[in-house]
Each structure stands twice: as C-alpha cells, then as structure tokens.
Amino acid sequence: MKNREVKRKGDSSQGTGSVEELGEETERTPSQLFDECTPLLASRHPAKIEQARGVIDKILQALGLDPSAYQKWADLSIKAGSVDDPSLKMAKAILEFMPVVIKLESQRPGLVKYFADNFGLVCFGRTVTDSRYFTEWYDALSRTDAQQGESERQKWVRLVSESLSAVGLSNQIIEQLFTTWKHCSRDSNPFTSVSKNTAALLKLYSIAQYKTTVPTLVEEFGIHNFCRYDPQVLINQFEHKNAPGDFGLLVFPKTDWNEAFDQNSGVISQLATKSTQLGINLRIVEAGRVNELLARTGKMVRKSGGKIMYLVLGGHGSLDDIRLGGDPHFGETDGRRRVVTTQDVLRPETRLFRRWFADNPQIVLVSCSTGGDGGIAEKISAQLNARVTAPVKPSNVNTIQLFRTGGDRGDGGNDLDLWVVYTRSQSAKFNAGARIRDDGWFEIRLV
Prior knowledge:
- It is a single chain.
- By secondary structure, this protein is an alpha/beta fold.
- The chain is built from 16 helices and 13 strands.
- An 8-stranded mixed β-sheet has the order 2-1-3-7-8-11-12-13. A 3-stranded antiparallel β-sheet has the order 4-5-6. A two-stranded antiparallel sheet has the order 9-10.
- α2 packs antiparallel against α3, α5 crosses α7 and α10 crosses α12.
- The protein is globular.
- The protein starts with 18 loop residues before the first helix and ends with a strand.
C-alpha cells in the first residue's frame, strides 16, 4: 500500500519502544510475556493482577494500543460482566481479548497499530473466527491504493460497497445494510459486523444457483444479517419462495446490540431441516419496525394462500415488550414503532391477525424475560389463541425441536409441537392465555 507506512520502532506517541525493543529488553516475545502473565491475571489476587497489568501495559503500547483499551474490553466482555470487583473484571477482560491481539500481531506485524490508527479499533474480537476478518482485510487493503484524498477507512467502505454492488444490490440497499450492521455489534465500531456479514453474503452468492438469490432475500424478506444463517437454509428459502400452502415463520430483529442472534445458526438449520421433512416450508424474515413485520408477514400469507403453522419470534425483550430495532444502547429510542409492546398485543384489532395463523398455532419467543406472569407472552397467547413458550429470565435458545404429535391434541389445534430448551432460563408455557405445565402430551392448567 503506497499511502501507508506502519512504524514499528520508537513510536514516541505511545511513550514506549516497539515490540522488538520490548523483546530485547526482556528477552521474551509478547506471546511469552503474556503467557507468564496469565496465571497472575487468573489468581484473583489484586497485587498479582496489578503486577501483570504493568507488563500488559507495555505490550499494548508497543503494539500501538493505549492501555485504556482495558476499559473497553471490560465493557464488552461477557466473562467480566459476571463479576463486580474492578480489578478482577479487568483481569477477565484481558484474558478474554488479549490472546487475539497477540495472535494477530504475530501473523501480521503492524496490523494492530494500523487498525487502531485508521479505524479507531481497540477490540479485535474474542475468537479465531473474528481474527480472520482482520487479517483478510489487512491484506486486501495493503494491496489496494487509496484514491485521491481517501482515508484508509473510506477505502475499506469503498471496497465493501463495490463487492456488494457486484452481487446486484443497489446503492440504497447497501446504505441500509451498513446502517443495520452498525447496530449489530457489542462494539460501537462496525468493522467486525460489516466484515462477517459481507463475507457470509458473498459466500451465499458464490454457491447459489440463481444470482438473484441475495437481492431477493434482502428486498422481499428483509434479511440483512447473513452471518446468522447457514447458506443452504437461505438458498432453500429462495427456491421455495413461491410455494403455496401453510408455512412456518421465523422472525429475527434487524438490530442486535450484543450479537445474541448470531449464535443460533445451528438451531435454525435444525428447525429448517425438520420443517422440510414434515412438508412445511420455513420462511425467515428480519424486521426493524413493527409495521415492517406486519407488512412482510401479511404479504407472505396472501402470496402463499396458506396460514402460519408456527412462529419463532426473536428480539431483545423484557416482561412487557419485544424490541426489533432502535436499540437504546445507540441512542435510538423512538419507541413503539420499533418495539412490540403488551399494549400493541391487547388492541382489539390485533385479534384480526388470527386469520393469518392456523388454529391454536405454536409460537416460541426467543426474547429475554417475556414469559413472566402477566407479560407479553401470556397476552400473545390469549389474543392469538396460541400455544406460546417463552423464557422467564434473560436467556438465549439452545434447541428447538419440531415434530408432529400423531393426532389432534384435543384443543382444536393442529398436531404440530415445538419443544424448546433455553440456555440460562426455565420456560413458561401458555395455551389460549392460560399458563400450563406440559408433561409430554399431557397438559395441566395452572390456576
């Protein structure tokens, strides 16, 4: 890259020498130094943690990161969030994020400083999968000259946009994708979210038989977060998009501040496979607003001439609402236009949506804390005469099993059943608004 030169020694702005100089001083590599710090960080002893942080400070500064990265890591760290002690919280965050930084720098010397300087990044992911996006883009950007007056970040945006345009997406759609991806990351910096979704989208395009697959999935079904789904599931959806008859529906939110909905690919694939075996097409929709959800769903019902046999509805939730977009973590709180509330569900006109569903449909909420007494799950069950399963506490979904019961359950409903296991929460189950305990095929209404 002609317009970039990464300085490796004596970076005075960081106040320390380079990695090489640090290695000469200690006669150990950054990786070796970090390995020696690991037991100190894991000790839970404040003095030992402080000793380790002194060494980590020098490593980070030598790589081009300010030690204030600690605080950002602690804010993003799932592991650190489980403890209250500030010293231990910081130690857990370092143990979670530092290995990727060390690995990246060993693979591409200068990479960490390049992204810190040009993209404002302090977080480089927590897994090997995350790290590969950095090495791939570092190599691609290094091979590409910037246009006149173009920054490195602007060059990256241009390259991403060009790749998306090449698969048939309009400039307007590309802008919408960038907006969505900005709000689908634990980090407010969109680099990783944009990178992994672009990679997933391009992979799908490369293996799909029909080159209109990606534009159709975006425009007709609102799908933006391609990294959430196995490519074959989306290809099957495209190829059966005009199939008549009843269908299953999975709705996920467009925005996702903590990447919770990126973790369900295997669950969705399992559901799609079983649904196909039972002769029911699964259709996946992403919606960022309530009116978008209703418009897309109504269009599918009218086009298929069928009814919704089951619904899996995801969104960041609480007892009284399910959020599809405009997450408050990004200062977008324009209320009910992006949030399904209990008030929405209780409106008399909501009962009209029953005609979209089969009798006594199965509904699963992938939405935290929605299963509490008097909550939105109970209200949906009553309004839609549905069998609803929802978590009672913050949780994600571990598995969803779809099967036929072999006959009518005796409540006038269809013979489908959804069996759900949540990761960190028990589930609450409702039938036509009444809480039930489900033991196999036998139900006990709880009074």
